[in-house]
Design goal:
- With 180 residues, this protein is mainly beta.
- A hairpin with a 2-residue loop joins strand 8 and strand 9.
- The two termini are 18 Å apart.
Length: 180
């Protein structure tokens, strides 16, 4: 489901501003050099991954928010991986990511207003198998093809930077590269 990456140091570009949100969830897509500082970009280059980065997505969720159960993309149980990092971790004990088994597909979105594309599942048929309350300041490799959602019980907005890769790398090949 996830692998912590304590040796991968990521920082925001000093000129980058986190997206403003109201009381709704927001997904925003950026180029790598808009979001990450030069040292972070160099860290990806050293691992020979920079050329395979598709984009950076920032998931912003309001306080006291439980996300929809979904997979990223439109192919259930794909092996796709992403590096996620909550860049404004103010009270890490109040949010979690949950993974599990989802039995009933509710809807598919894949259009210009939803640049991430996702399959959404019925929450009544979601059996949580793993829940992670982790140190958010540490990037983590996330398996995004397994049904999951975030739960933000904090009174702070949660901004998650997600480094997205082209289809060349799946979760397990990224894990091998990033943990050696």
């Amino acid at each position: 489901m996830f692998t912590l990456l304590p040796n991968l140091h990521l920082r925001l570009n000093s000129n980058f501003r986190l997206p403003d949100i109201d009381q709704t969830y927001k997904l925003t897509v950026f180029a790598v050099d808009e979001v990450l500082d030069q040292d972070s970009i160099n860290n990806l280059r050293i691992k020979n991954l920079l050329k395979d980065v598709r984009n950076i997505q920032i998931f912003s969720s309001p306080s006291f928010y439980t996300g929809n159960i979904h997979i990223d993309g439109t192919d259930p149980y794909t092996q796709e991986g992403a590096i996620n990092w909550v860049c404004n971790d103010t009270d890490q004990s109040y949010w979690s990511t949950q993974w599990g088994q989802a039995k009933k597909l509710v809807k598919e979105t894949s259009n210009k207003s939803n640049p991430g594309s996702a399959l959404y599942y019925d929450a009544k048929n979601f059996d949580i198998t793993t829940e992670w309350h982790g140190p958010c300041s540490i990037p983590a490799l996330i398996h995004v093809g397994i049904p999951h959602r975030i739960v933000n019980k904090s009174n702070h907005i949660r901004h998650c930077v997600s480094v997205r890769f082209n289809n060349k790398h799946g979760y397990y090949s990224l894990k091998e590269i990033l943990t050696d």
